[in-house]
């Protein structure tokens, strides 16, 4: 397109002038004879007949004319990105002036716009992000239309594997859900759409976190909550980097699934060890395959958790290799491998001594923090307090002895 073909889109001027500007943008690449024929219906609709109110005072006529324009918006147009952005910004300005965002008319026209923008060619993705972001920000913060716009953004990002472009974070999502005047069902649906988007793109960690938030948003005893809870349990067990099952176990909907066969397995991973896992597997021979759970992977995870629990009980102490091997049901020669694995998983910190065949526990993660863990922590704090009291007593004695010696020392004098 040559420079002379460029059409600026502006928000100044009368309603008629702005409509003319929008129409000119839509037909800018058509032959001259088509332009003339296309413009006539708009010119006729905006003529002021005898006894009619001026266009600026006639809201119904303005809505009719604007609806005519929207019906002709079939894509993003042939302008450059600046012109496309200006065109849609002017569309938004008229849309929300004529149709307040909380009215059915606004949603109807918005749905059509979102479909038009979303279906534009993928090579126009950068400008699609921008004009949809402008639309999102043009809506009032409490608008029920905002989730529709963001879902369109999300779908585009997923289709192009570009979800990181949105810089989505849970704090923003939580704020939006508090602000948006939508039903609890719509809020849950929005959360699920985010969890599904991350899952589709293979970002399992983000998907899992949004899944937990989604479950919290559901009535605990509902069918949706129960199905989501079972899926979340299976996902948490399946993912190799999830070791903290406490947040999942504390969800009311998950507790409501206590009679499900996977719930008892979740309890094993929350509190027990390899022996309990083996017993559970023998009692439920077909369940792992049913939920696409790998037995070898689960055995690896439960051993790491068991070692972390053993370490938590012996922080500041030396654990013999033989004790670790006995607990994990492995040969002593494999102990160092398991210690390295549990350290890599971030569950434990310590120092291995090959000469002494011991592991000195510096720090270890508790799988859950209930009465037993509080009692262990209390004993540890009392021990530290006792140790510190001893150190302070030694320091006090040293100071007293130092002061006594100083008082007996001769005083030096300076001669004239």
From TrEMBL:
Classification via InterPro entries: COPS7/eIF3m, eIF3m, eIF3m_C_helix, PCI_dom
Alphabetized Pfam families for the sequence: eIF3m_C_helix, PCI
Subcellular location, principal: cytoplasm
Organism: Marasmiellus scandens
Compartment(s): Cytoplasm
Cited HAMAP family: eIF3m
Similarity comment: Belongs to the eIF-3 subunit M family. Belongs to the CSN7/EIF3M family. CSN7 subfamily.
Protein name (record): Eukaryotic translation initiation factor 3 subunit M
